Amino acid sequence: MLFRSADSLCRLPVSFTMLALASSAPLSLVVQRAMPATARLATPRMAEFVETDAAVLDRYMNLPHPGQVQAEYLWIDAKGEVRSKCRTVDAKKASLDQLPSWNYDGSSCDQAPGEDSEVIIKPRAVYKDPFRPGDNILVLTDTYTPAGEALPTNTRTAATERFAGREDEVPWFGIEQEYTLFNLDKVTPLGWPQGGFPGAQGPYYCGAGADRSFGRSISEAHYKACLYAGIAISGTNAEVMPGQWEYQVGPCVGIAAADELMVSRYILQRVCEDFGVYCTFDPKPIDGDWNGAGCHTNFSTEKMRKAGGRAAIDTAIRQLGARHSAHIAAYGEGNERRLTGKHETADMNTFSYGVANRGCSIRIPRSVEADGCGYLEDRRPSSNMDPYVVTSMIFETIAEGNEELDIQESSVALA
Predict the structure, then answer these.
(1) CB atoms within 10 A of CB 282
(2) What is the per-residue pLDDT for 188?
(3) Phi and psi (nearest 5°) for 186?
(4) pLDDT value for 48
(5) Model pTM?
(6) Which residues are registered as beta bridge partners of 122?
(7) Which of 49, 77, 216, 351 has the most CB atoms at less than 10 Å from its CB?
(8) Strand boundaries in 233-322, DSSP class E
(9) SS3 of 42, please?
């Protein structure tokens, strides 16, 4: 790519435009001749944020369309990112049991070859659309071949099978999604000086002030949009690294936790689109003495939540420890850059647990120790983890009564 931004060609002088039209040379050669050497050597970057007039858009967004609903169908692509497109449905058929299946071009999402590119999407959950208020909806789907087979990237189907038949366990999940905001250059975290670094970590976690809170408007907008949509978002906070935030989804039962997290990620990306800010779920977006980004997954069964449930929690933790390597392999890409034993993480090659210990693989909250029942927090999943894989794997490891790791907890007793 030769241009510094997508609109560079439009800004080239008229003399260049005439040269390009008159020349028989390839366009790339004409560009190289006409542009200065510094521009030719520049690395590609994103187009600048294109700002639109919200007041003008509102004229159209507020137009009524009685009897019809805009249904934004969401699906997960080969990279685990959420894509979408919209269709009109009869308002009387805008419910999960009546919404039609649809399709998309799988070859453009790395999920099908060009000669047989059609991927079928089937509605699985419905939410209110915070970007088109009223009766309009977001429709979460999963993906299939025309023959009805789940795509290899459709991890929801496998997760559903893992949860099936064990409904009496009533598995609850609460997921803490961390993310990092960047300028559109994808190099400079929001609020950081370009080409430099802010002050050391310390004042940013849950901080307030223009010198330490960068991106609060995005966090607030996302929070309200999720509440409107019907997502079980339970809180939000600024994180340890400046420009990094977290929100929590749950408690949700079974497959609903992963469904709601995926939709909340989509809503976050749409909010960032409106603000002209880049959002990443990379587990270690900035190298060095800066915290990474995780997706801590809190879990409990009905037995754990009842009086005396601490024993079941300890057993579950030892079962998770026995399968530590398998879980680590499934807990997200790039996690080795985050799980180093520093910055509130446990080294990925070891397994540990303890009460209130954020340097362990599994944390038992202090309230659980006091109450003798409750839940555990698996701190190993990365921010880009697949929630269908992680939630169902935790549940399966514990529900199947796997072997237990012989390990003692690493806790500091209260005085």
Answers:
(1) 19
(2) 96
(3) 60, 15
(4) 63
(5) 0.87
(6) 142
(7) 351
(8) 233-238, 244-253, 278-280, 297-300
(9) coil
Q: What is the pLDDT of residue 288?
A: 95
Closest listed residue to residue 239, CA positions, set 205, 280, 273? 205
Residue type, 256: A
- In degrees and rounded to multiples of 5, residue 250 shows phi and psi of 130, 180
Tell me the one-letter amino acid at 3.
Answer: F
pLDDT digits (tens, 9 = 90+) for 131-157: 999 999 999 999 999 999 999 999 999
Tokens representing 102 are 């649809």
Note the pLDDT of residue 120: 98
Count of CB atoms situated within 10 Å of the CB of 161 = 12
Given a contact cutoff of 8 angstroms between Cβ atoms, the answer to whether 351 and 405 are in contact is yes
Apex 154 CA angle, 296 and 244, nearest 5: 30
Judge contact between 194 and 243, C-beta under 8 A.
no
Residues of the chain with pLDDT under 70: 1-49, 411-415
**DSSP SS3 for 319:** helix
Neighbours of 289 (CB within 10 A): 11
Residue 47: the pLDDT is: 58
Question: Mind giving me the DSSP string for 349-368?
Answer: TS--EEET-TTSSEEE-HHH
Signed CA dihedral, 301, 303, 309, 314: sign only: negative
Distance of alpha carbon 407 from alpha carbon 293, whole angstroms: 27
> What counts of helices (H) and strands (E) characterise the chain?
12, 13
240: CB partners within 8 A, 6+ apart = 201, 204, 205, 291, 343, 344
Radius of gyration of the chain (CA): 24
Q: CA 2: distance to chain centroid?
A: 32
